[in-house]
Amino acid sequence: MADVEIGIGKSGRRGYGLDDIVVVPSRRTRDASDVDLSWRLDAFDFALPLMAAPSDGAVSPSTAAEIGRLGGLAVLDLDGLWTRYDDPTPLFEEVAALDSDRVTRRLQEIYSVPVRAELVRERIRELASAGTVTCGAVTPQRAAAIADVLLEAELEVLVIRGTVVSAEHVSKGNETLDMKTFIRRLDIPVVVGGCASYQAALHLMRTGAVGVLVGVGSQSTSTTRDVLGIGSPQATAIADAAGARTRHLEETGVYVQVVADGGVDTGGDIVKAIACGADAVMVGSPLAAADEAPGLGFDWGVSASHRSLPKSTRIAAPRRGSLAEILVGPGRDGAGRTNLFGAVRGALASCGYADVRSFHKAEVMVGPPGRRGASRRPPEPAVPGL
Fold this sequence. Notes:
The chain has helices spanning 61-70, 89-97, 103-110, 117-129, 140-152, 179-185, 198-205, 224-227, 234-252, 267-275, 285-288, 323-328, 340-351; strands at 3-7, 10-13, 21-24, 39-41, 44-46, 50-52, 73-74, 76-77, 135-138, 157-161, 190-195, 211-214, 257-261, 280-283, 298-299, 315-316, 363-366. It starts with a strand and ends in a 20-residue tail after the last strand. It has 386 residues and is α/β, with parallel strands linked by helices. Helix 4 crosses helix 5, helix 7 packs across helix 9 (234-252) and helix 10 (267-275) packs across helix 13. The protein is globular. It contains 13 helices and 17 strands. It has one domain: Aldolase class I (TIM Barrel, Alpha-Beta Barrel).
């Protein structure tokens, strides 16, 4: 891709978001009932190519069990409210009722309570008792400190997720996490991210991770691009990571899963992410709109409570139906925000593809942005909590 001159001495690549592209139907169609959406992560098989994002507003132990029943993999935030409080339900009610200008300060206060190791064990065992694959997320800063607790509780899949995660972190004074050494000493599969470039994705794949999360600043709740000015348009980031996956496969014979993390609000977004090379998607705010979601109609990112530099905000997630209706239907709106994977199945059928991986070959075209425009972040309601 040719660079675009920004000015004398500076040029850059042109990048594309998911709103900038469409999938072009092929000469063949297929019956939707013949489409296989199943996805494998290491030794685990799922009916849907879905990871539910580790968002306190979307994933609780009970919703994780339901998402697992519906065919996805739910990721519980092991640095979140469920591992800091015995019963965080009153806090969700409080956050939902707060005026917008008070949210960040109050989240900082709520999340200042330390994570308790005994609650981490309890939540993991709660997931296991529900019969779902136990999956939890931690930040890179806490991964090493909590590793023994996770292994003792028999966590089955670990997600190491941050705003930007690299395989090579440089520090003059502080102890740093050697991602490659850390992953290889664990006896469980690890998914790591986010990243937004070919080189970053390739380096993370070389750590031994079974999957990489692709997306920086593209999540609905994220304000990273406003706060730090960093990120990458999601369609380009996914395609770059898919290219890194191909190179890694050629070098090692190991296929690493590319998971699109961010920019996914509708069924059409999932379709386009897969067409760009994603094996699965990580979905957060659409699930926070479920009737069962703990956020009571709101969602916020992990970094919303950062003590000194929050990079996320609370957003409205108006109720759209049950988790089942949002994921597998029947759909209840015409904007693509329910029956997400029914839409994916329909798109693959309309384009003649039998499964997710073959859909990576689908033709895409750059076109005018969709009707939603440049901003995807929904406004908060005039009356908080409604």
